Amino acid sequence: MAQFINRREDVVTEAIDGVLALSGGALTRLDGYPHIRVVLRSDWDKSKVAIVSGGGSGHEPAHVGFVGKGMLTAAVCGDVFASPSVDAVLAGILAVTGPAGCLLVVKNYTGDRLNFGLAAERARAFGLNVSMVIVGDDIALPDLPQARGVAGTLFVHKIAGALAEKGADLDAVTSAARHAIARTHSIGMSLDTCRVPGSPKEDRIPEGKAELGLGIHGEAGVEQIDFAGARASIATMVERLAVVMGEGPHVALINNLGGASVVEMSVLAHDLLGSSIGAKITHAIGPAPLMTSLDMQGFSISVLPADAAELALLKDPVPIAAWPGVSEIRPLAIAALPDGLTPITPMASGHAPTRAFVINCCDVLIAAEQDLNALDAKSGDGDTGSTLAGAARALISAIDRLPLSDHTQLLRAIGLELSQTMGGSSGVLLAIFFAAAGDGASSGLPMREALRAGLARMQEIGGARIGDRTMVDALAPALEALGQNVAAAAAAAREGANFTATLTRAKAGRAAYINARQLQGHVDPGAEAVARLFEHLAR
């Protein structure tokens, strides 16, 4: 897959200059491209302890994104996933270190340890007061003699940076950093590897698997496990975190490794707080991309049993856009629905044949979920099957609350249920259809005519006509032919659905925004759902 880059050799420098140009003057870089890539605070006056970190690029916003008042004083950037040179690190130290000294925060990778360590020695030879701490928070590979440094490093950046900003001396800042490091634990999981700019992607993780404990440079994890959803993934990670977590309150840092969507990260946060360690988590940072691995489809969790002083330092506000702040975990706040919107419960009544009929119809839509999604992906947003299946499941759940023995009231009740549980425009239109059909039946219309009245109201409000490439293309002829028998209705619905595959222009729905080439030969998913439903009834 293509990437939005120019030359591989220029990725890091162009990215850094992009960040600087948008910083409003808050950030400055040293001269020396491409070998020396150091970003520092523009307002730095060397009066306080400097906090310097860095490493390979590709983990954005770490580390450049956290340079600013209250966090890093400078970040030293290497190539993608490669440690910066000794000279680059030394240049960063010399640029920001004054009489108060400098703390280097280094992740536990051999290249970083060696290059930052040698740079510190050379800086000390210049007479500078430099200390260094090594972060090794990864618990995924317990047999390693030296754990890797991953997203838990951000705890150290924030605590050390806030303390230095308050004027603490180098010994106090270093001690606080080591205290946090000793109690920080992290673990990550991903569904896919990342794409290094200009290099072929490694397809190491098969479909249906997740890799536990892979590193932030894409290196292999401890094991590949069957992927069974967000909750199961959290449970697997929490099982390992629980072993190393002590008692008392913890802060959790929920890190997006780069490729997970906002929705996925919110679901993972929900499941983490509902897990076996959820009660211990009193505060959270994120979910957010904090220390990424380019576009890796994964996430990590870091935990720290922060004491009162550390929590206060973590909460100190900073003018840094990439830092999401600390949230206190509180019970969900739920307000009552406004007057008039409280769900109206119809008078339930039993009728076995109607109950079986409704459930069978719902089962047809549930079984068609994936097929309809695949059709919709070609002409819309790929969720028609899920929308209809979700509504069908909701109807099945509500079946014993419906007035099954009164078909007039049943149509209205189905319309009400769909308006409350079915999303999107299709939910509104079907709710209108059933409500209007119920109104028609209550005025004495036979069932077929009542359904046609519902269709007319749906068309009036929704605006779709035959030939517009919607479910109407199948529903209208089916209801017309229903006067003969169900088999004739099924045949008419199928003919109408197949007709939509010949239409290269949609006049309603999301397919209206799709070009003709993409629509040609593909049946409208709504029309296909109607056809399948009538075909099932005919059988």
Structure summary:
43% of the residues lie in helices and 14% in strands. With 539 residues, the protein is an alpha/beta fold. The protein folds into 2 domains: 8-196 and 204-328, Dihydroxyacetone kinase, domain 1 (Rossmann fold); 352-538, Serine Threonine Protein Phosphatase 5, Tetratricopeptide repeat.
Count of discrete alpha- or pi-helical segments spanning 4 or more residues:
18
CATH topology of the largest domain: Rossmann fold
Structural class: alpha/beta
User: Main beta sheet: strand number and arrangement?
Assistant: 7 strands, mixed
Count of distinct strands: 13
Strand order of the largest sheet: 9-8-7-12-10-11-13
The level of helicity is: 40-55%
**Separation of termini?**
46 Å
Extract low-pLDDT stretches: 510-516
Shape: elongated
The CATH fourth-level homologous superfamily of the largest domain: Dihydroxyacetone kinase, domain 1
Radius of gyration (Å): 30 Å
What is the count of structural domains? Answer: 2
- Give the overall pLDDT as a whole number: 89
By CATH reckoning, the class of the largest domain would read: Alpha Beta
CATH architecture of the largest domain: 3-Layer(aba) Sandwich
Task: Give the amount of beta strand, in percent.
Answer: 5-15%
